[in-house]
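A note from the maintainers: we've had questions about how concatenated examples are separated. There is no special marker in the raw files; a new sequence line simply starts the next protein. For clarity in this README we add a label.
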Amino acid sequence: MAEHLYLKLDGIDGSCDKDGHKKWIEIDSYSHGISYGVGSGKDFSGQVDHSPLSVSKLVDNSTHLIIQKLNRREQIKEIILEIWKDGGSGSTGKVTSAAIIIKLTNCRVSSYSMGGSDTGTLPNESISFAYQAIHWTFPGSKPTDHDFSKPFGA
């Protein structure tokens, strides 16, 4: 099943021209992790660690604004990552719904890198975003979230 990945950065327009995602940023891949440093025989009082949300995409009209946010240490109020799935089989499948929606608030660009080769394509860039709060929506399920500004269990 194919995925279609769209990223919306508050105040930064992307190059996507697809219906429902105009001015969003099309991304090639994403990565996000959560870990809890606990093992057998250890105390269970440790912290849960959220890694930044990392994305990979081609250079587009959002690139210079993302770099500017990093250089100026400016906040991005909200970031939305939508992961869409094909509703059918093969390349003829119609994109029907978002499978996962991840919303980050009070974000900052925590890392940026660009690379390319002599293949005639645009350079690829990798960007990581740190955040204060994260909210996951899995359509058909109860949403879940975590806000680092609130005490655990609040």
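[label: protein 2]
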Amino acid sequence: MISKPLLLTLLALLAPLFARAQTLHPWTDLQGRTLQATFVKSDGTTVTINWNGQVVPIPLATLSPASQELA
């Protein structure tokens, strides 16, 4: 059984990960088009976002420098 202090520590460490995944961010491409979506994951070449309930992969090279930093 996991001790209460250990469980609380794990929850405290993992909470920011869940908060990041649920926060809406503006994602802008190189043409200046912007949409609001939540971050799902990034693998170094593609960022996956959740936009209007759809999971959408986007090549990082097509995003603005600020959006690439966000990924």
